[in-house]
Design a protein that fits this description.
alpha+beta; 9 helices; globular
Length: about 425
């Protein structure tokens, strides 16, 4: 089992090393912007270049002559540009407006060849040789990033050096690998189905909704801002667009981390062994109204849940999404007329509920049936519902009660960004 974390570490930079770091970051940006210019306008065939190997072959000697950077930092600068150009090309293919990537943020990418990572300091390669920077850490040993740095099982992979408001920070990517515990095939499991959408970023089979109102509001605001800046076409406008992108990314990251944490809380409360999502491979075809920001958010949310849930003994899996929004979760009738926008009403049995909630239950059922049809016979699996559980045979089990006879579900107090739907399928 693998855990990945990003430790944001404030650096205590010696006064005589600050200038070296700023010059290094400046030359790194020069590499990235030179590569972006070359890749965006393409080679002789007129196409955008999205091959790292091709860009490095064409630019390596030039950038080594123009900078005092090590080989590794030059390569990282070129690769950063290629990744940004790839994203731009993808947006162009979707018919969206974009422009050549330009890098203005004071940042540089380091790996183990250009940096040596320790538990209390780091040694960074610069244009003037190596500099040592101590970490500035919180006193509380239970606060991040100390929890990661003091856990010897977490190893450094790479880091992004950033300068913000005159301070230096290391965004260190860390990994922890643990031996997987064999999962007994006979163990009874409960799963949480999750449907993703444009109006509700996530809906669980337990009837909890995570509204996308905030996400959609800021998405529209950032789009308007980008569109206005793109009209100018100046270098300052490109820098401003990049700044808007960083703010948008940061805001959405915080939002998605919150949703991921609450999804895991939901799974743990209901004793779920797995959180089941629909396969995101062709998500744009399944959700035509989804923008590129929605698609990015869906994938990022799954990634967050996948790595966070392991610490709670919960797995994250994906199942094919075919017809999950058109199938009745009560009788199994599948018809495109069952769904009308956000309303679901089965033409056969008359079951009615929110369409996303119905889809979330179907996603859970799909994993349930896949396990039951496994070659080894699978393991007994239930889908967690708003009130009780449902198994592959359609047998319903009511929720457990407290000593006072009050249903556990009715005692919940969802956070403000969550709302709960009652299940009228009984």
């Amino acid at each position: 089992m693998e855990y990945r974390r990003t430790a944001v570490i404030k650096l205590d930079v010696p006064q005589d090393a600050d200038a070296s770091l700023r010059e290094t970051v400046g030359q790194f940006k020069h590499c990235a912007n030179t590569a972006s210019e070359w890749c965006w306008h393409g080679s002789d065939d007129g196409y955008h270049v999205t091959s790292k190997a091709k860009a490095e072959r064409a630019l390596y000697d030039q950038l080594r002559d123009e900078t005092n950077l090590t080989v590794n930092l030059v390569q990282k600068g070129v690769r950063r540009a290629v990744e940004a150009v790839k994203s731009g090309v993808a947006r162009l293919k979707r018919g969206e407006r974009t422009s050549q990537p330009y890098f203005s943020a004071d940042s540089a990418v380091y790996d183990k060849r250009s940096a040596t990572f320790y538990r209390d300091h780091v040694s960074l390669s610069t244009v003037n040789g190596r500099v040592k920077c101590d970490y500035t850490l919180p006193d509380d040993p239970d606060r991040h990033p100390r929890t990661y740095l003091e856990d010897e099982d977490y190893e450094f992979r790479m880091a992004n050096l950033q300068r913000r408001d005159g301070e230096w920070f290391l965004h260190a990517s860390m990994r922890k690998v643990e031996a997987d515990d064999p999962e007994p095939d006979t163990e009874h499991r409960t799963v949480l189905g999750v449907d993703l959408g444009v109006n509700n970023i996530a809906v669980a089979s337990t009837g909890t909704f995570w509204s996308a109102d905030e996400f959609n509001h800021w998405r529209r605001e950032y789009e308007k801002c980008r569109s206005s800046l793109q009209q100018h076409g100046t270098r300052a406008a490109h820098e401003a667009i990049e700044g808007v992108g960083r703010k948008e990314y940061g805001r959405f990251e915080i939002y998605l981390h919150g949703v991921a944490n609450e999804l895991i809380e939901e799974a743990v409360e209901y004793g779920c062994s797995h959180i089941v999502f629909e396969d995101l491979t062709h998500i744009r075809e399944n959700i035509p109204k989804a923008t590129w920001q929605h698609v990015w958010a869906f994938r990022r949310l799954f990634q967050y849940v996948e790595y966070k849930a392991t610490e709670h003994g919960v797995g994250a899996v994906q199942v094919p999404p075919n017809h999950t929004s058109q199938r009745c979760s009560t009788c199994g009738c599948t018809h495109e007329d069952n769904r009308d926008g956000e309303h679901f009403e089965c033409l056969k049995c008359g079951y009615q509920n929110h369409a996303d909630y119905n889809a979330a239950k179907n996603i859970g059922f799909r994993y349930l049936r896949r396990r039951q049809n496994a070659a080894d016979g699978g393991a007994p699996v239930d889908v967690a519902l708003n009130r009780g559980m449902l198994n592959v045979s359609g047998e319903y089990a009511p929720p457990a009660t407290t000593d006072g006879g009050i249903e556990r579900e009715s005692m919940r107090k969802p956070s403000p960004q969550r709302a709960r739907s009652s299940d009228r399928a009984k």
